[in-house]
Amino acid sequence: MPGAKTAVAWLASVAPDPGSCLQEWERDPLGVVLLPAGKAWDVLVLPSRLGCPTLDVLFRVLDRPGPVLADSADGRTGFFVPPGTAARWLGTGVRTAGLGTWIVVPHPGGLSSGPVRWLVPPDGNGTLTDPALLELAMHEAAAGLAAEEDEGRAGHARG
User: Fold this and answer.
1) CA distances from 122 to 35, 89, 151, 153, 159 (A)
2) Quick one: pLDDT at residue 158?
3) Integer Cα distance of 103 and 39 in angstroms
4) Is the pLDDT assigned to residue 30 strictly greater than 60?
5) Minimal CA–CA distance to 75: which of 57, 106, 50?
6) Residue 154 has pLDDT above 80, yes or no
7) Which long-range contacts (CB under 8 A, 24 or more apart) does 27-30 make?
8) What CA–CA distance (Å, rounded) separates 1 from 122?
9) Given a cut of 60, is residue 121 above it in pLDDT?
10) What 8-state DSSP symbol labels residue 110?
């Protein structure tokens, strides 16, 4: 898979020792590596309850958003955004991974055997999600969730 090979190279390029990172994935393509954020990308981490609807909104307005990770063990969704975004982000309830932090990253071309998996794997071209667009998508997703909750409460009140 040529796209996966360039995505692997793109991800590994931020590792302190890219060769070791590549070897680790070659030994276990179902495994994960730790990679530093803040070089080629930052990650904005949302609770999956908001992250999944946000990704749905992004898919309605973009052909392809940047890479997105899901962590089923932690119930979180991580959106890859340009470096420096984490230092400037002010959103409530959003964790950030920027310079000085590390994230668990599965191989982009295979299925992860652990709880961390790609919802949108990297394309190898460095495509990232625009933080302003991500914020708008988050607001739309949150409004949709609030409307669903209001309908649920109204339904219970009638029932």
Assistant:
1) 14, 22, 37, 39, 46
2) 55
3) 12
4) yes
5) 50
6) no
7) 29/107, 29/109, 29/110, 30/106, 30/107, 30/110, 30/111, 30/112, 30/113
8) 13
9) yes
10) S
Output the pLDDT for position 31: 83
Q: Is the pLDDT of residue 1 over 70?
A: no
For the chain, the residue count is 159
DSSP 8-state symbol, 11: H
62: left (phi over 0), alpha (psi -120 to 50) or beta: beta
Contacts of 22 (CB under 8 A, 6+ apart): 8, 9, 12
State how far the Cα of 84 lies from the Cα of 86, in Å rounded to an integer: 6
Closest alpha carbon to 97 in 114, 80, 112:
80
Give the whole-number percent of the chain exceeding pLDDT 70: 89
114 CB neighbour count, 10 Å cutoff: 13
